[in-house]
Fold each of these.
Amino acid sequence: MIPATWKRYQLSQLVNKALSLPKPVPFDFLVKGEILRSTLGEWCVENGAGEEETLEIEYIESVMPPEKVSDFPHEDWVSSVSCKLQGQFLTGSYDGYIRSFDYSKSATSSTQAHSAPITSICLVPSASSQIVASASHDLTAQLTQINIGPNSKSTPLATLHLHTAPVSSVAANNTGTQLLTASWDGIVGHWDTSIPESDEVPEVAPNERDRRKRRRVDGGGKVKRKAPVGVLKSHVGRVSRALFSIKQEKNAYSCGFDSTVRVWDTENEICVHTITASEKPFLDLALPRDPQTLLASSTDRTVTLYDVRLDSKPAAPVSLAHPATPSCLAASSQGQQVVSGGYDGMVRLWDLRSTKGALASFRAWEEAGKVLSVDWEGNLVGIGGEGGFTVWKVGDGA
Amino acid sequence: MAVKDLKKPSKKRKQTTEEDVPAPPALVVGGIEMLSDEEGGEDALSDDGRVDEFPEIDTRSDSEEGESDEGDTSDADEEGDGEEDEEEYDDDFSDADSLHVFPKAKTIVSDITGQPKRVYPEIEPEYDSDSSTEDAPNRVGNVPMHWYDDLPHIGYDINGKKVLRPARGDELDKFLSTVEDPSAWTSAFDKNSQIDKPLTTEELDIIRRLYVGEIPDAEYDPYEPTTEWFTGKGKEEVMPLSSAPEPKRRWVPSKWEKQKVMKIVRAIRQGRIIGSKPKATSKFTFHSIWSEPSSSNPPPLPAPKPRLPTNSESYNPPEEYLPTEEERKEWESQDPEDRERDYLPQKYSALRLVPAYDRFIKERFNRQLDLYLAPRVQRFKLNIDPSTLIPKLPSPGSLKPFPTYKSLKFSHGKERARCISVSPDGAWVISGDETGKVSLWEVNVGREVKSWNFDSKIGALDWCPRLDVSYFVVTVEEKIHFIIPPNIPSPILSLTQALLAPVSLPPAPSIPSPVKWITPPTSRWSIDTPILTANLPTSSGLPTQVTWHRRGDYLATVSTGGTQGGVWIHQVTRRHSQAPFKKVKGAVQMVLFHPLKPHFFVATQQYVRIYNLSEQKLLKTLQPGIKWISSMDVHPSGDHLIVGGYDRKLCWFDLELSDKPYKIMRYHTRAIRSLHFHPSYPLFASSSDDGAIQIFHSRVYNDLMTDPLIVPLKILRGHEIRDGLGVLQVKWCSRQPWLISGGADGNVTVWCS
């Protein structure tokens, strides 16, 4: 029996008392998948529940309102960000540069990896050196070694040649041995990260008009042209994102504009499972900590939570409705929380247990601008988009 | 005259009554005719009237005299009427005066006759004269008293002195007096003296009598015994009233009449008067209606027999015939013409309790209406629920996907984004504005990847529909530029270059064309400049439209100026241009290639003409009924065409059905600017100067029997209206249900589902 006039604060006190926590921890409360924002009595009136009914209230650790940490203005749009490199932020921009910044807001490196816009970057985890994979509109992906330091020069290592259309995303696995590229031509490329000794793909006849290629040939003679290990072909439309599974090494996920999410066996290069939605061109994927689920954002302004288990019964997927196109997603490595960035310039923080509304939402930049990429590492969320790159602190500092 | 004639009888009657009034004894006489000298004439006339019947003679002159007499009498009548009215007026006054109480009469037995008689008291000139002794000094007469409203006096007494207005209290005094004075309720306001005067007992008696409906005069006895003045006992008249001898004419036959009759008899004998022939009674012929054979017409149908009454119509029907409460309510709620039966069974325990037939008058009335050929029932307006008249369309929710929201926008600054085009794979958009800038950007990020600048306004641009090569055309003033976008795979790039700038140029056409095709030398090729340019003849103006044939080899342009309607068809592989029309009636607005057949649509200001290009002849002329066509598009199946006009109309043509529109829609409030069919989804969009884009579902069926289904789905608003221009062009993204729209506000917007 709880008084109907209680709010979050009283409930939080009750839980703290019941758990006899040494240090009080603020909690939020979920009633039927909805965050309790008012008193219990008001919630009952709004949702038509009688005050005599038994309500199941779930408590979750509450999230502090996000705070802006720092701002990294860019001249061009930032298409992709990565916070995975320890102590550094990596950004890929539409001007073809990969830049890195340290936490004190100073640029540590900058290299032009592509002459065409970069669509996606990712850090290839390795023990010795910092290798970044980038995907671009120039139909290739590239492996670049980033040397942190004011005067150090980054060196391109290899270009990945497979696709016949702009490459939309690149992703590495946990150990940094394999890469996946997704492209507009509907192909997912599967690569290893070893740098070949010689060109695996023959150079096309140099064309006078293609100055970009000519320059690369001139400038980086040691850039190796690399061929894929495998090609995953099943999508019928543009593939927007391909990711490795976190737990199972050989599994990969991809989503595309053909409204499908596919689960791949990368060893055998077959599609083992296909989730078909109706008329949902998918834009981005995120893998929450729970390995059986997968989040996909689509242009119909929803982010949908799918169950990727093969033997799962097709239950109605849970959707997070957005007011604008959710262009990018990032899942927290710790909990059930997800951030999504939208074309309206808002970044929203969601808890997957409470799907009716976002936990918090904040505007990434003062002026309106599309958010094109988010990345979440620890308690820092890097946001890239039309207004440059900003870092926000989300969650407690634990 | 006719009116007068109509009036005559009533007037005559009045005259008679008037004549009756002065001589009541004549009426009371009872049979005896009072003969007097004055009335002799009249009597003679009446006698003449009684004289034996005379054969009808033409007495036209007499009747004329009679008429004139009547005319005179009518005049006299009118005068008489006037007098009568006056008399009535006086009578009224006397009635009003009769409020003054008469002195009471006494009834005494006459000394002379021994009969009772009324005797009125003597009038004493000092005290009893009718008014002089009364305390009514106001001699103002019968004038409206409000004439004295503003004056201090209310009239004058007999000596000509002013009679001052008596003091009258206010309303409170009046009320108090009614409370205090017990006789207040029997007093009345005397207008003449302007004070309340208590009514006398006689007046109260009159009021009481009027109230109970008796005769007001207390003295009047309506049941007086009849006094037989001349025939009563002992009063019989034995002597004539007049001593004049009886005139001779009473018993002597009239000599003048005899002369007159003889005159007529003589005339008849001499044949001067011919009696009118008897009526043609002999003409009446009998005929047997039964003997003749029946006519060819069928005999009239016998009247239908009335239905026999049933149990429920009985005055005491069994219980099961009685309606329940619901049935009664339902019966009462229905209209009379909708009822199954026009009565409700009712139960009476005895026949004597049955009331009168309540619909008797109604039925009589209906019968009268039938005889009058009037409709019995007043028909009301058809009471149709308007929602039933709307055709049943599927709900837009079931026809998803279609664009519903604005996903992103690409800005051209302040310049109007006049033309847009989407690449055949649906990934890139090119948009051109009025400063000559062409931007290439991604559909679902909206980031400009490349831009080209030209020195004048962009007229139109379109992407080549071929998938194995990748280039687009941009038209500026008198020029058509062919441009290769960046970042395309090298095989496609080399194929495109080989197509647009082949090593060996195709042979020049036999007929020299005024259009010059120019490729810059290989050394000057750059991503920023067009690889191929076609120069249209000078003064041909800006090509406002460019459209590709499905195969991607031919393209047609429509220029604003020049001869031949400004229509050119260019072939890229042969680098050849030709003007298909020598002369076009009307200004060409738009041209289109048929997607499957070698047909060519040409929209002039009011008509759409379809030409067969291979046979070079006119196939059909469509008449949309639009005053000024602005845009058109052909369905991917090639069987349907939509045409939009500046007069807000959108016409859907089924090309196999008719050259008149299958459907005309007027949903936009301003001029329609652009139309586009989705290449794969059953959708089309129309954009207008009202700043709105309308999305329609348009399902076309393969069988010829089913009409196309057109459902309005969504109105997309978001473009601003600038200088009266709204959304200038809409294009669909080829593989997704996404729409791209360019507006006069400089924004190109992507609408996503």
Amino acid sequence: MIRNHRREVVAAYLFILPFVLSYGVLFFWPTLQMIYLSFTDAPLIGPGQWIGLENYIEMFDDRRFWTAVRNTSYFVALTVIPNTLIGLAIAMMVSRLKGWQQSVILAMFFLPYILPVSVVYRIWNWMFNVQFGIMQYPLTWIFGEPTPVFRVQWMFMPTVAFVTIWWTCGFNILLFLAGLRSIPSDIYEAAALDNANRWTIFRRITWPLIWPVTALVLTIQLILQLKIFDQVYLFVQGGRPDPSMVMVQYIYNMAFQRNEGGYAAAIAVALFAIVIVFSVLQFQLLRSRGEK
Amino acid sequence: MSALDTAPAASVATADQGHKRRSFDIGGAILTLVTVIFAVLWAFPIYWGVITSLKPESQVISRTVEFLPRTWTIDAYWHVLVNTMIGRWYINSLVTSVSVTVLTLIISATTAYALSQLRFPGRTVIWYLILASFMVPIAALIVNHFILMAQFGLINNWLGVILPQLIHPVVIIVYKNFFDSVPKEYREAAKMDSASEWRIFSRIYVPMNWGVTTALAIVTFIGAWNNFLWPFLAVSRTEMMNVAVGITQVNDAFGVQYARELAAAILAALVVAILYLIFQRRVTQAIMLSAGVKG
């Protein structure tokens, strides 16, 4: 029996060996290194001096850091709730359809989600092109003249948020569809017998029963959008990146363009801390959902 | 699961009765119409990108909106295929994405099996480490991933692109959930025949969960194919880029040639788009699974 157990332990260690090696080297080690690096003045590549909390003190006085925090929060505010609500609305529209009609319509809504971000960038950059973009028709109608939306400061973030919602909403739609399917149909039948109208059915049945999924989508979105980089980086090309700088972009800027590895690591630790706070919330939520 | 087979039949029956009571559901018809219009608008940018890429450059910059090309041409595609390294980028994307997928699945499945079926010291610690790493933003690690890969001499190298993308704790968690639900009898019977753990894993647990493996493979592959940030940082030489990064280089080479830019973009999206259209249901299922929702 003891021999058997020893064999099981040896087998187990062999099974987790790939995990220990890969996560150890590629995940836990870089995480610890990041924290260490944030207390030094090291360049991107090469050794640095231990400078204690200096990077963090500098960070609190750094106007560009706070701009990045503000822009990231602004982007999160512009995307998370609209993306969730639009996802729910589309899922409800799609779930009414049956069979092949549902597949076709769902595919039309979902297709953007599987595109690489650079393709999304190319498509929308063309759509919004100042001279020839098709979006200039509604924009000219609203503003009276063709508008370079990615060059006008106040329009930049909302437009990027709009494109992001178009791109990622498919994921939310799927989660909501799964949630809607799990609502028992006899509840709706009972409501139909009472001649309840669509709005009442939505408010009294669908919304409360779909709420756990809504909460899940909200938290997933929140964590995802805090890590915004790709779209902002691509759409700002050719313009001034500073006013619309987001946190990951600032890390990139400091480490890869200004060669300040230590300071970049300090910003990364700050992002890390923010995301972990929200992740813990998400995890609690998932767990309470699992127990039900 | 058996309830699934009978439920649609029942709802069809009630829907029929509903039709008899209300002669024509105007609200429903309007909603369907709105849905269709909205879906068409939603998919329009993709259609517009494809159509533009099939026009000659002179018609692309015409002032009138033409929803179909007057002259169809694949010149832009020829130009991209001949004059950029897109072939090379495709190979880079394929090699790195397939490697990321295969390696992630191997690491995750073996770990999940050990956590799910075997007792060993340190098991709980590892499980909590995995749950904790679930919360860590990989994007925050770019600086140290870069330093690490530079130390290994793996910048501008396939392996350098692949390695930092192997961290997917969700895959381990999903596998563990499925291995947990395999009936214990199989394992006990195999033990009686004194089968080794590796045999039990590879002959029982993996084959019984092929569906999960396919689903996770699809999601991991799409994620790796579309990944931008890390491949963008890990590679500076044009011939080592993957497609998603490479096509952002196309404009520098040409100046402004909209059809060509879009043709490059369409080519970059093509593989995953076709995969999705063929395996639509599987992809849908896979994405729900990876979010922890059983669809």
